[in-house]
């Protein structure tokens, strides 16, 4: 996309919240992500920090694989159905369905089950959750002006991420009251039902068709539509250089983040000890989540303004360089303080990249195929993390102290930077001479 750069005004959060449909969409996201955060933290506590269970790197990697890799199968269904069915109905039904499976997961935890019996119901909760997340993202252009998508997306995803952190913090609090064993973990995990059912109720208040899709560009047969979902998403992604390049950068971030996450889990579980108000164990993970939430908040506040000032390309490049530096400078000491600072900086910069890529999909991809592109995005996103976690599990020591792996994670950001610059060159090569690209100027993502 090419256009003359123009000055853009900011609506601000108050103006966005004055749009009834945006406000309802945001409330749907907040309730859902609170439930997600509580469910995931409750499950993590039950599996990783439960005195009645033990967890080694292989077990942690297996948990990540079982919980995240099924997205690869669910993703095509998500995209095809979001571009075929009323997105309001998809969001409502998905939330009610996964609320039921939250209760089944909690029952499995309470019964002391482990391995596949526990993970099957949990992966259904998180897998169906992609219908909600992708549906909310694909619906956003229907409720806000197109030239304010960056700002609207930043507010929605930032608030949602913070609410997920609050949900996780609530899980830690409930776990303290209800107990850290199987019984207490089961009750804690089950409370996530409240957020999911509330999200379904709020979404049910939308009028039919308001969230799209406006047009259906799919075969009449639903099975054929599902079968070609990933292919259509891949074609649309490749035809949109801004999305292709941004996705490469984001995948590098996710792979590096997966490595760092495994190291952090092991450090908190087996290596680090409390230092004053800073905690190890699941309390330390809660503090890491808060630090990451602060990074997400700052990214939500600053991303739109950074993009306006420097353009998308320089913003993404700068964010990738910042994460590489943080991995080395803050990751190598492996202390509680440095881990918190690294979490803040890496998640801040990573969220900037994600906001840029989300908005590129929303702005540059047609509504008739947008759900399938988001589904492909989610699928690759999770494959990258699972692969990184699995590879890390084969070489990381039990105490998590591996400077070499931290340097590898830092190098992945540089690989992502190179891939982003190479793929974004496709866009510049086809631009019309004499025009200023939005990607290189100080104007919206596109």
Q: What does this molecule look like?
A:
- The chain is mainly alpha-helical.
- It contains 17 helices and no strands.
- The longest helix is centred in the middle third of the chain and has 31 residues, at 241-271.
- The protein starts with 11 loop residues before the first helix and ends in a 17-residue tail after the last helix.
- 58% of the residues are buried.
Relevant terms:
446 residues; 76% helix; globular; disordered N terminus; cell membrane; MFS_trans_sf; MFS_dom; membrane
Specify the biggest β-sheet.
none
Could you report the average pLDDT, rounded to the nearest whole number? 82
Number of helices: 17
State the end-to-end CA separation. 6 Å
Structural class: mainly alpha
Uncertain runs are 1-8, 428-446
Radius of gyration: 21 Å
Query: What is the strand content?
Result: under 5%
The outline comes out as globular
Sequence of secondary-structure elements: HHHHHHHHHHHHHHHHH
InterPro entries: MFS, MFS_dom, MFS_trans_sf
Domain Major facilitator superfamily (MFS) profile: 1-428
Protein name: MFS transporter
Keywords: Cell membrane, Membrane, Transmembrane, Transmembrane helix
């Amino acid at each position: 996309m090419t256009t003359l750069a123009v000055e853009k005004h900011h609506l601000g959060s108050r103006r966005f919240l004055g749009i009834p449909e945006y406000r309802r969409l945001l409330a749907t996201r907040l309730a859902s992500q609170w439930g997600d955060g509580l469910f995931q933290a409750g499950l993590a506590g039950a599996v990783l920090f439960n005195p009645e269970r033990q967890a080694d790197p292989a077990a942690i990697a297996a948990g990540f694989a079982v919980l995240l890799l099924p997205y690869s199968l669910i993703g095509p269904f998500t995209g095809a159905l979001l571009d075929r069915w009323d997105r309001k109905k998809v969001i409502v039904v998905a939330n009610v369905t996964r609320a039921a499976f939250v209760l089944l997961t909690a029952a499995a935890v309470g019964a002391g089950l482990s391995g596949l019996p526990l993970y099957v119901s949990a992966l259904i909760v998180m897998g169906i959750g992609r219908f909600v997340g992708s549906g909310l993202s694909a619906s956003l252009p229907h409720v806000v002006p197109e030239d304010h998508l960056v700002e609207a997306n930043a507010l929605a995803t930032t608030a949602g991420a913070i609410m997920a952190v609050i949900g996780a913090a609530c899980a830690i609090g409930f776990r303290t009251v209800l107990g850290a064993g199987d019984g207490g973990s089961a009750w804690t995990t089950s409370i996530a039902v409240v957020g999911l059912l509330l999200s379904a109720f709020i979404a049910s208040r939308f009028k039919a068709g308001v969230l799209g899709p406006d047009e259906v560009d799919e075969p009449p047969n639903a099975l054929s539509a599902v079968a070609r979902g990933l292919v259509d998403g891949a074609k649309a992604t490749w035809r949109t250089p801004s999305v292709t390049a941004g996705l490469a950068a984001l995948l590098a971030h996710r792979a590096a983040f997966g490595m760092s996450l495994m190291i952090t889990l092991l450090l908190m579980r087996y290596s680090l000890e409390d230092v004053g108000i800073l905690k190890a164990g699941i309390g330390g993970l809660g503090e890491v989540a808060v630090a990451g939430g602060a990074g997400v908040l700052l990214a939500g506040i600053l991303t739109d303004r950074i993009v306006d000032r420097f353009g998308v390309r320089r913003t993404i490049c700068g964010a990738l360089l910042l994460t590489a530096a943080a991995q080395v400078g803050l990751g190598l000491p492996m202390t509680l303080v440095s881990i918190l600072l690294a979490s803040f900086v890496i998640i801040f910069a990573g969220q900037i990249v994600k906001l840029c890529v989300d908005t590129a999909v929303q702005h540059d991809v047609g509504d008739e195929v947008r759900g399938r592109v988001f589904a492909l995005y989610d699928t690759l996103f999770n494959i990258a993390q699972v692969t990184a976690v699995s590879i890390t599990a084969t070489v990381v020591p039990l105490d998590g102290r591996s400077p070499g792996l931290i340097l590898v994670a830092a190098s992945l950001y540089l690989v992502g930077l190179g891939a982003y610059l190479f793929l974004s060159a496709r866009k510049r090569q086809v631009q019309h001479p004499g025009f200023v690209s939005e990607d290189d100027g100080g104007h919206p993502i596109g």
